Amino acid sequence: MTRPAASLKSRTIELINNGAPPAYYRLLALPLDGTSSPRLTAGRARRMKPALSRPPPFLMHLKIVGSPLPHIPWQPRPAGNQDLIWRYDANPVIGRRPLPRVTGIYNSAVVPWKDGFIGVFRTEGMDRVPHLHVGRSADGLKFTFEPKPIDFRCDDPEVRKHEYAYDPRVTLIDGVHYVTWCNGYHGPTIGIARTTDFVNFEQLENAFLPYNRNGVLFPRKFDGKFLMLSRPSDTGHTPFGDIFISETPDLVHWGRHRHVAGRGGPWWQGTKIGAGPSPIETSEGWLLLYHGVTTTCNGFVYSMGGMLLDLEQPWKVIACAKEPFLVPEAPYELTGFVPGVCFPVGCLCDAATGRLAIYYGAADTFSALCFGQADELVQFIKDNPLKT
Prior knowledge:
Layout: E1 10-16, E2 26-31, E3 39-42, E4 62-65, E5 86-87, E6 102-113, E7 116-125, E8 130-137, E9 144-145, E10 152-153, H1 157-160, E11 165-173, E12 176-184, E13 188-195, E14 201-203, E15 212-217, E16 226-232, E17 243-248, E18 255-261, E19 272-275, E20 280-282, E21 285-296, E22 299-309, E23 317-320, H2 331-334, E24 342-350, E25 355-362, E26 366-373, H3 374-383
Parallel strand pairs: 1-4, 10-14
Antiparallel strand pairs: 1-2, 2-3, 5-26, 6-7, 7-8, 8-9, 11-12, 12-13, 13-14, 15-16, 16-17, 17-18, 19-21, 20-21, 21-22, 22-23, 24-25, 25-26
């Protein structure tokens, strides 16, 4: 990417609205010299406040496949902050004891729903056995929760059998929301369910044999097939782990397993890695947020990183950032049931502006929120790739 000419005073973001022809929303969202207001260049757009406190170093012309989300939870980057990702200043969004006899809600997925937001949340009671609950919010910041765990419906009692459920992801595909989670079936595997109303959940076959975690679906099909990222594991805390991809025509029969990315390289992801929220489709590739883990004398430390995957062959990595976007530093990330954890699971994206609101688990106790710009993350990944 070359530097823009001096006359180019803005960053441009375009929206492809779910495969629509190029009647894009085109915004000049931020003047590089910071002296004038955002200007409209083509298509339909609305006047915006500048999202950044510093100009990006390059002109990133990024197309994002998705829908506008004008009510996305958002805070501008604090003045003087040079980080790619910045934290919500009222974190954690979900604190201790959010429900009676529940010690924490964390590692949970939030998606747009009607005029607000809805999600599937990991809860842990006093016995520390994890369950999944539905939560709702008008603004993506304050949530109310169903008091009882999700009652998954399944005709097969062998699949229906419940041991534990945690770390859910929620992905919208062709008008149906699919929930994937770490499901207890003689060890951890990937459970799958689908819903159209977040009231009735149909549980499907487990995707894989034990042992597996971090099952994350892509938000569209590839030649009629579903694709899922996962991280083979063991029965315990798994001191290893790479990301793989698998495909299925029917969410029952899985195959064509391919290696995507491995641990190692920088120390921050030297122990294991795992996919985070559902990948975001952009003109530069699939933007995948993921967690990387290092082992210290005090145990595991979880940080958030990013990589770009090929659009049509997403088992091929275009580039992986050599540095993490977010590391445990805040008190609620360093103090809790498992100190030193930033675990990204849900991500809201406003395709019209590139704004991201990322939900992550903090210290296996809290739910926290951070913000970023998709074009900045993509540019950083391309400019600072991990050398393999």
